[in-house]
Each structure stands twice: as structure tokens, then as C-alpha cells.
Design brief:
The protein has 10 helices and 9 strands. By secondary structure, it is of the alpha/beta class.
Length: about 220
């Protein structure tokens, strides 16, 4: 028998209502709170802060401390030690580019909701066996997009699995993804491009967030 899902119902609902998760790469802790405020001002209430820079953990702590209304998850979580670190820093959830059983097991052990990355039916089967029902589909567009995802997910849909596609999602194709019943939310790196962050152009980021928020309202309306 497959184990029960590990992601809480409350977090599931919050991610579904957020619909678009802003994927962030931050180089300076001082930029974290202003960026979070800029996204919130545009209606984006959830971010995935990737652990790709030395400043990432400090940025995570800063957002949790100074912008508590923002739902913050940690991405590119690659080791059990990082699972513990992001949980201690206040991350609401974790995400990885692939599925690493020891990482998922550690997330389960300490109670961190976790969405491992999948790309094949074997990945999905392994994730389901470990109790995951929410998974990251990565890389999305270069990996075949929605037609491919629908094909590989078909044998497992009766288990209630859902996906967060990431990689190649743009304002032009975001609506198509959000309307698909397999898609719980999408990851959007276009909301806060690194160059805008480095220029501290918070107004431009708020404008991008407003466009994305209007899209979510159009697609999911009453769910927000």
C-alpha cells in the first residue's frame, strides 16, 4: 500500500490559491525584503527561494522575519543537511530539481512539506512510494511540456497526484498550464529577473507581478 501524502492540506490550498510561485535567485540579503514587498504589492504571495547563492539562507531568514505574510519555500534543496537548514530558517516547504530518496526521507522526518522534481514515470512512481503527491515537473517546456506530462502522469492520476511545472513557463503559456487539471501551481522565474533585482527596480517587478496576478484571477477567480 502506498503511504499517505506528506504535504499538509493547508499548504496545498495555499499553493493552489497562490497559483504562481515566483522563483528567486538572490545575491544580496538586503534585496530580499524589498523584493518580497514588491511581489506582494503586485498580488504574488508565494516564492521559491533557490539555494544557488551564498546569500540564499540569509535571504530566506530575512523574508520570513520582515515579510511574514509571504509564503516562502526553498528550492534546489539537494541534501538532508539543507533540508534541516531550510526548516530551521522558517521555510514553509522545500523543492528539489530531481528526486533524492534521502532528501525526501529527511523532509518527512522533520515535517517539512516537500515536492521532489520528476521527469519520468519511474520518478513519479518513486515519489509516490515515498508518500509524495505534489511534485515538481522539471524541466518543463524543453522536456515536452503539457502533452508529455499528461502521458507520464496517466497511470498515477487515480492517486491524486498534482504537479508544479517549472522551466520554460512564460506569461504567454502560463494560462494554458494553469487551466490543466494536473497543474496545482506553476513556477515563474520571469516575475523577478536577476537583472531587475540587481538594479533594485522594484516597480518593474511589481508591474510583472500585477500582470501575473491578473492572469491567476482570470483563470482561477474564486479560488483566491
Amino acid at each position: 500500500m502506498y503511504p499517505p501524502p506528506t504535504t499538509s492540506a493547508t499548504l496545498h490550498e495555499s499553493l493552489f490559491n497562490a497559483a504562481i510561485i515566483a522563483v528567486l535567485i538572490l545575491d544580496e540579503p538586503a534585496d530580499a525584503a524589498p523584493l518580497a514587498h514588491a511581489l506582494l504589492s503586485g498580488g504574488i504571495s508565494c516564492v521559491e527561494l533557490t539555494l544557488r547563492t551564498p546569500a540564499a539562507m540569509d535571504c530566506l531568514r530575512s523574508i520570513r522575519s520582515l515579510v511574514p505574510e509571504m509564503l516562502v519555500g526553498a528550492g534546489t534543496v539537494l541534501s538532508p543537511a539543507q533540508v534541516r537548514e531550510v526548516k530551521e530558517a522558517g521555510a514553509a516547504f522545500g523543492v528539489s530539481p530531481g528526486i533524492n530518496p534521502p532528501v525526501v526521507a529527511e523532509a518527512q522526518r522533520i515535517g517539512l512539506p516537500f515536492a521532489p522534481g520528476i521527469y519520468t514515470p519511474t520518478d513519479i512512481e518513486l515519489a509516490v512510494e515515498q508518500g509524495c503527491r505534489l511534485m515538481k515537473f522539471f524541466p518543463c517546456e524543453t522536456g515536452g511540456g503539457l502533452p508529455y506530462l499528461r502521458n507520464i502522469a496517466t497511470p498515477f492520476t487515480h492517486l491524486g497526484i498534482r504537479f508544479i511545472p517549472l522551466g520554460g513557463i512564460t506569461p504567454e503559456n502560463a494560462e494554458t498550464f494553469l487551466r490543466d487539471p494536473l497543474v496545482h501551481a506553476i513556477g515563474g522565474s520571469w516575475l523577478a529577473p536577476r537583472e531587475l533585482i540587481q538594479r533594485k527596480d522594484w516597480r518593474a517587478i511589481t508591474a510583472l507581478a500585477k500582470e501575473a496576478s491578473a492572469l491567476v484571477e482570470r483563470v482561477r477567480g474564486g479560488g483566491r
